[in-house]
């Protein structure tokens, strides 16, 4: 493959990513129905025909954007194939939790994704499934893995790790969404999350550990 062709491929890939990034902003702000291809092209400084060179339709952009967001979330936050290490202490568990909270609150793509999924979950079946996955199910699975590992290490009392994960992650998820609604209260809300996590872990801690 010639250098020129490689450069053209890289440029095309960069343009496709720019389209998806701008589409995420528009979809999150205006919703799927409120976003049109002409305005998206204008925001990118492209002609409408140039936009259709990269994506065949608005639905094609929507699907590709959700694919990219899911990959970003899994890579950055965690998934079944990218599970966090088991903490070696309860204090380490709290710090790990707070790092995940910090990422979830401050990563721009994740913030926009939450807004998007909340708005579109009643219209789009995949958005509904992703909302359930991102806001609850994946966190449950990740922390069920963490809690089971900590129980095996003798750090936590032996309980049902899935139920323990649900009891731990649901309030934290609710507080993160409260932070989305009231960003000016972020310091207060994150402190509440830390306090909750600390008390929860203390109650679940195996005596003497």
Automatic annotation (TrEMBL):
* Pfam families the UniProt entry points to: TetR_C_7, TetR_N
**Sorted UniProt keywords:** DNA-binding, Transcription, Transcription regulation
Which InterPro entries does the record associate with it?
A: Homeodomain-like_sf, HTH-type_TetR-like_transc_reg, HTH_TetR, TetR_C_Proteobacteria
DNA-binding region, residue intervals: 36-55
Decide whether keyword Zinc is in the record: no
- The residues covered by the HTH tetR-type domain are 13-73
Q: Does the keyword Transcription regulation apply?
A: yes
What PANTHER family does the entry give? HTH-TYPE TRANSCRIPTIONAL REGULATOR BETI (PTHR30055:SF234), HTH-TYPE TRANSCRIPTIONAL REGULATOR RUTR (PTHR30055)
| Stated name of the protein | TetR family transcriptional regulator
């Amino acid at each position: 493959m010639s250098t020129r062709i490689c450069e053209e491929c890289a440029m095309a890939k960069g343009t496709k990513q720019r389209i998806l990034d701008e589409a995420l902003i528009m979809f999150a702000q205006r919703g799927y129905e409120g976003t049109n291809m002409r305005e998206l092209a204008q925001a990118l400084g492209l002609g409408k025909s140039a936009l259709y060179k990269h994506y065949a339709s608005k639905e094609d952009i929507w699907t590709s954007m959700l694919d990219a967001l899911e990959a970003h979330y899994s890579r950055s936050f965690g998934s079944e194939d990218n599970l966090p290490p088991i903490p070696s202490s309860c204090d380490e568990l709290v710090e790990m939790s707070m790092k995940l909270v910090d990422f979830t609150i401050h990563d721009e793509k994740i913030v926009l994704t939450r807004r998007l999924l909340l708005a579109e979950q009643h219209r789009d079946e995949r958005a509904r499934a992703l909302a359930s996955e991102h806001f609850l199910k994946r966190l449950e699975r990740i922390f069920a893995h963490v809690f089971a590992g900590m129980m095996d290490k003798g750090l936590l009392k032996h309980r049902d790790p899935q139920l323990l994960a649900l009891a731990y992650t649901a309030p934290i998820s609710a507080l993160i969404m409260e932070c989305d609604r009231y960003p000016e209260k972020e310091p207060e809300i994150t402190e509440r999350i830390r306090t909750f996590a600390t008390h929860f872990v203390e109650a679940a801690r195996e005596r003497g550990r």
